[in-house]
Design goal:
147 residues; mainly alpha; two-stranded antiparallel sheet
Length: 147
């Protein structure tokens, strides 16, 4: 009578024993051993004496005669550089630039003319202040004059 599984409720059958003829299994094992021995002799015997070392052919080489010439040595370094001296150029007066007398990155010397500002605005101011200056020169004694 089959039992039922406690989890799924399936019928469980007992495995039946199948009779095996021992005489055939013994012969089958003998045949397997005989075939394995024959194969090993075949593979082992085929490898004897046929595999001899042969040297590889010489490799092709390109030959060039050495030459003498001048070589420039250089280094590639990572990093950043900074100028020894730097100057900030700032405008101290109003006006438009008439000309720029240098190129960026160019070396300049002390006293070089760098920019020219449009003179019209300053000429107008001088013309406007000329009458006041002449009155100041008349009224002010000479020993108070600024340098």
């Amino acid at each position: 009578m089959p039992r039922r599984s406690p989890v799924f409720g399936l019928r469980l059958y007992r495995a039946e024993r199948i009779p095996v003829n021992r005489r055939y299994t013994k012969r089958f094992g003998q045949w397997i051993r005989l075939a394995a021995a024959a194969l090993s002799i075949t593979f082992a015997g085929g490898a004897c004496g046929r595999n001899k070392y042969e040297a590889p052919p010489p490799s092709e080489v390109t030959v060039v005669r050495p030459t003498t010439r001048e070589v420039t040595t250089y280094n590639e370094l990572s990093g950043w550089t900074a100028a020894i001296e730097a100057v900030d150029v700032r405008a101290r007066v109003q006006g438009y630039l008439q000309s720029v007398n240098f190129k960026p990155g160019e070396n300049v010397k002390k006293g070089d003319l760098l920019f020219v500002i449009e003179p019209t605005l300053y000429e107008a101011r001088v013309a406007q202040a000329a009458p006041i200056w002449s009155i100041f020169m008349i009224v002010t004694p000479p020993y108070v004059m600024p340098d």
